[in-house]
Amino acid sequence: MKTRIMTNYHYDWDSNEKTFFVYQDDICFHYDQQHQTLVLALPFKNEIFVLEIFSLDNLVIDVYHSLPLGQDQKDNILNYVIELLDLNYDLPGFYLFSAQDPILKLIYQDHLGFRAYSYLNLYEAFMWTIIGQQINMKFAYSIKSELVKKYGRAIKHKDLTLFVFPTPKVLETVSFEDFQKLRLSKNKINTIKLVTTMFVNHEISQEVFNSFSTAAEKIKFITSIKGLGIWSANYILIRSLKQNDVILFKDVGLNNCLKTLLNLEKIEDSFLLALQERYQQWCRYAVFYLWRVLY
């Protein structure tokens, strides 16, 4: 059964395609370049919905499901897509700020219409942060792919097999030895098992983060978990929690972008701290737009 949800949102696929090419090794979604369509599986309670997201004039969501959708379900799916593609972010405000900034004014016009693609599954964001520490993206995606294929949920849709990231309760049952078969280091496995247990026990959740009033409190909480440092904390805040006022410290990609743009030998933390203080609520998108210098 298919239900079509029409929206009032415009999405610039041409400006965002590079994002999907960079993440093309991510097993949890599929991008059809020919039809400019994003396809993914969305779990909701005991059912998995398949979403095909594309544009006619505005953004359209085709939902494939086994039972008729109620209005609440339609609203939830629409809100999910709005958050996934960051459709409510104030791009005009960011561009006004960028036009006056000596760094951002060098790049922002090359990427007009680009919006961040978010990790809305907080557990997946934590796991990806741990898996991706200190290894290249290709290797990290290969590990994630093996993990999801073995422990996640799969659903057939047309000629595709779509996957849903495994839940904390599923990964809690995985042995240390089975994690080792995925080519994960001992330290990463220990961190994965610790974080997974914390999710199962509701010690980490969206509600926990909602109880914090500042980015500093969230960073302190994440970095108190053994195996997660400042890079991990800021990455989770930027990619999943949409914390607009933090910049990414200790990130090789961001540092390389800044070194290229500014012809610097090294990027000091003090320089990034000054940027964070200057950019304030524009920090998150400053990071995303600076990353674009790499591709």
Automatic annotation (TrEMBL):
Enzyme class of the recorded protein, top EC level: hydrolase
Molecular function terms, GO-annotated: alkylated DNA binding; DNA-3-methyladenine glycosylase activity; DNA-7-methylguanine glycosylase activity
A GO biological process held by the record: DNA alkylation repair
Top-rank taxon: Bacteria
Residue ranges occupied by any HhH-GPD domain in the UniProt entry: 131-295
Signal peptide per UniProt: none
Keywords per UniProt: DNA damage, DNA repair, Glycosidase, Hydrolase
Coiled coil: none
Pfam families per the UniProt record, alphabetical: HhH-GPD (PF00730)
Reactions mediated catalytically: Hydrolysis of alkylated DNA, releasing 3-methyladenine, 3-methylguanine, 7-methylguanine and 7-methyladenine
SUPFAM superfamilies: DNA-glycosylase (SSF48150)
Protein name per UniProt: DNA-3-methyladenine glycosylase II
